[in-house]
TrEMBL record:
Lineage: Bacteria, Pseudomonadati, Pseudomonadota, Gammaproteobacteria, Legionellales
Domain Rod shape-determining protein MreC beta-barrel core: 49-196
Keyword Glycoprotein included in the entry's annotation: no
GO cellular component, one term: plasma membrane
Top-rank lineage group of the source organism: Bacteria
One of the GO biological process terms: regulation of cell shape
Family classification: Belongs to the MreC family.
The entry's keywords: Cell shape
Source species: Legionella drancourtii LLAP12
InterPro entries to which the protein is assigned, alphabetical: Cell/Rod_1, Cell/Rod_MreC_2, MreC, MreC_beta-barrel_core
UniProt protein name: Cell shape-determining protein MreC
Length: 218
């Protein structure tokens, strides 16, 4: 009986240690997100990922923030490293994020080194993106960092999105094929950052959502 008690006690201590490590990691992530928010100089809110679907057909995550928190469709989502995606569906208490790795995702970006602009698309592979519409005359190189261009008026300008891994030229094609890895930790985050690039948009969204919630409760 004593042996069993010791084993049980050891297992309990190990479980508690794992819980503490998880809490410590989350606190570290939250600190990084708050630092990102401060640097962004715009309204922001941390959100927790409730569910993940990164299958071959789609790449989405579900957050614990929704209409009641002022979340709106098209809202940018970041982590401490860079852009993760945008909100595509909003419920009263939760919302769905389309990750930049989804094949439906297209983010206008520019090369932080040269200023060249192009479109970064998802491939339904959590670790691989492609840059399109870049001519063979481009001076893009592996290691170049791609940031949001802001031309879609959705993602704020200058946020890191990806890093160029490989550049290849295809005979007969006018454009180069560019493989890119996402900067954000798309498959390792538990906490993310909702941002409001436009404070007027934030206030308007909150007002509209309050009215919608009031109607739902009637």
């Amino acid at each position: 009986m004593k042996i069993c008690a010791c084993v049980t006690s050891k297992q309990w201590l190990e479980a508690e240690l794992q819980k503490l490590l998880v809490i410590q990691k989350e606190n570290s992530q939250l600190k990084e997100l708050l630092q990102t928010s401060a640097q962004a100089n715009m309204s922001a809110m941390a959100a927790q990922i409730l569910a993940v679907d990164t299958s071959n057909s789609r790449q989405v995550v579900v957050l614990n923030k929704g209409k009641r928190d002022g979340v709106y469709v098209g809202q940018p989502i970041l982590d401490a490293k860079g852009v993760m995606g945008q909100i595509v569906d909003v419920g009263p208490l939760t919302s769905t994020v389309l990750l930049i790795s989804d094949s439906k995702s297209a983010v206008p970006v520019r090369n932080n080194r040269t200023g060249e602009r192009a479109i970064l698309i998802g491939t339904n592979d959590i670790e691989r993106l492609f840059l399109i519409n870049l001519p063979k005359t481009s001076s893009i190189h592996p290691g170049d960092v791609l940031v949001t261009s802001g031309l879609d008026h959705r993602y704020p300008e200058g946020y890191p999105v990806g890093k160029v891994e490989q550049v290849s030229s295809i005979p007969g094609e006018d454009f180069v094929k560019v493989k890119v890895s996402p900067v954000a930790l798309l498959n390792r985050n538990r906490l993310v950052l909702l941002i409001w690039p436009d404070k007027e948009q934030e206030q308007l969204t909150v007002q509209i959502n309050k009215r919608l919630n009031a109607k739902e409760m009637m």
